[in-house]
Amino acid sequence: MALDKMRIVGGNRLQGEILTSGSKNAALPLLAMTLLTRDPCELTAVPDLLDIQNMIKILRILGVDLTFLNHTVNAQTIKLNQVEAPYDFVRKMRASVLLLGPLLAKCGFARVSMPGGCAIGVRPINLHLKAFEALGAEIELKEGYVEAKASRLKGAEHTFESVTVTGTINALMAASLAVGESVFHNCAQEPEVFLTGEVLSKMGATVDGAGTKTIRIRGRNELKGFRADMIPDRIEAGTYLVASAITEGELFLRGANAEHLGAVIQKLRDCGAEIVEDVSGIFVKGKKLILPLEIQTAPFPGFPTDMQAQFMVLLSLARGRSLVHETIFENRFMHVAELIRMGADLKIKGPEVTIEGVQKLKGAPVMATDLRASASLVLAGLVSEGVTEVSRIYHLDRGYERMETKLASVGADIVRIMNQPEVEK
Predict the structure, then answer these.
(1) If one looks up domain 2-21+232-421 in CATH, what number appears?
(2) Is 79 exposed, middle or buried (0-12, 13-18, 19+ CB in 10 A)?
């Protein structure tokens, strides 16, 4: 199999400005929400990523009339061709489960293949399904597919067993066309959930509490179309903040929203980085001395699991011992072995990684295993002695728009090597 690689020569200090892309994790549910109405919908600042492209392909297969040009999506769903999201597309992207709620609410039936994507542990779809059942749906698992049906969903009260971003969003989308009011407890509080509630309100549903632990939503018989601007991608911005911190750089992340990155910004300051928050973006200046930290991942507004791998690179160069405790996913340390190949001193014990800071990392051929692990290996390459080649960067392309172009524009020595044969290590 021929795959692209990223080649990085480390040692360059990053300096300049990077424009923050729109949020992938906000755009995906909003794309799914176009199924809820027959009216035209417009989404702006949509990032051009593999996950976005795959969602668009699925929507077109379902029958959505959709264009994607210059980061703007125009979509209208007059009549669906089918209510099944096929395996060949769904297997590439976990977020395809977001199609279940809108299809079930709009059509009374949905058949979606069990989702695929990054192999970073169990993301229990049962949290979604229990919410649908509370709204009156019947659920069956058949031959790798989820089948959900209901003549008409009805408002209900439901408590999520654990916090789930996509589960919360899926339940809100389903409830937006249900009869009566629904109340959801233990909801995710991420900015993407707040945006979902905001857009559903524009469409005509009555939504109260989006972005808090309890959300009330009153459904409508029909919903209107919407126009929505994407929020900035907080994980992309956080990744580039770390890139500046580890290279003693000076970067301005234009468009980044500091309110969405509170925990990340605080930890960077605790490490010694200088950060200035501005209405137009975030400035970060890295320092030679990196201080050790303890980090525990948690749902928003806590420290995001999607930034754990990137911070592990930063802490690998800290003066002293750091500790990272992962509480969200049980298999999110696959980047550790690759970082050890580059000279990091890391030890895994259950859900924790102990990090002893080293003076330098060394370039090596490494392999990406998931989206955020890919980003961490690129960051390690930026600060390593010599050459680093990161293979399987299709993971990276799922969530970072033109990463090599953005980093090169601020001084990184990084290039994409196209269509290279994959070699076993």
Answers:
(1) 3.65.10.10
(2) exposed
